[in-house]
Amino acid sequence: RTDALIKIGEKKSAFFMINLPLDGLIFNQKSEVLKEEFVSYQDFSSEVFQAIFSSANGFYFPRDKLLSKGVDLSEVVDLCMNETRGLFEHADMSSLTKEQRQNFLLIFYAKLEQRLCVALKASRNSTCKDAIDRGGIVNAITYYLGQRSCGFFESGKTPRCNSRALEDLETVLHHGALFV
């Protein structure tokens, strides 16, 4: 299925397909570096960067198309890694467990998808088959990050953005379960 979507993306200039795998060596922490119980943030982030920019382990980005739209993937990935790390402000980032690394990746993926969609002025579809399992997880994180960026968790303050987009995302978040 991924290969078919990549082929469509190669033929259609307005179609951008990226693949952020929730399986494989990086997410399942099976690479030589990540299989250890505790891994430093530096080693973890290096491993993620290497996988993204080598298009290994299921990662896919249409780099030429992104560059033609003025999007530097390296800058976007670096920004999203830093933003995600900022969300872990109370955590000790010197040594991360497998669960912490997987949580980091899920949030990073959601942020990366958001940033790329904004930069490309694109709509989004982060579902896998039915949006319940892995796709549902990413949709839920995206919904939470949207609420957070609008100020929904700041006590005593009115949210700063149009909630219509969040209502639409909430519908997407729940639709998969409605059909099961």
Describe the structure.
By secondary structure, this protein is mainly alpha-helical. Helices cover 58% and strands 0% of the residues. The chain is built from eight helices and no strands. It has helices at 2-11, 24-27, 41-54, 63-68, 73-87, 98-120, 134-150, 163-178. The radius of gyration is 17 Å and the shape is globular. 19% of the residues are buried. The mean pLDDT is 79.
Quick rundown:
The chain is 58% helix and 0% strand. It is built from eight helices and no strands. Helix 5 (73-87) crosses helix 6 and helix 6 packs across helix 7 (134-150).
Largest sheet: none
- Uncertain runs are none
Shape, principal axes of CA atoms: globular
Average of per-residue pLDDT values: 79
Q: How large is the count of helical segments?
A: 8
Helix residue percentage: 55-70%
- Number of E strands: 0
Estimate the strand proportion. under 5%
Entry keywords:
180 residues; mainly alpha
Strand and helix map with partners:
Elements (H helix, E strand, L loop, with lengths): L1 H10 L12 H4 L13 H14 L8 H6 L4 H15 L10 H23 L13 H17 L12 H16 L2
Helix pairs in contact: 5-6, 6-7, 7-8
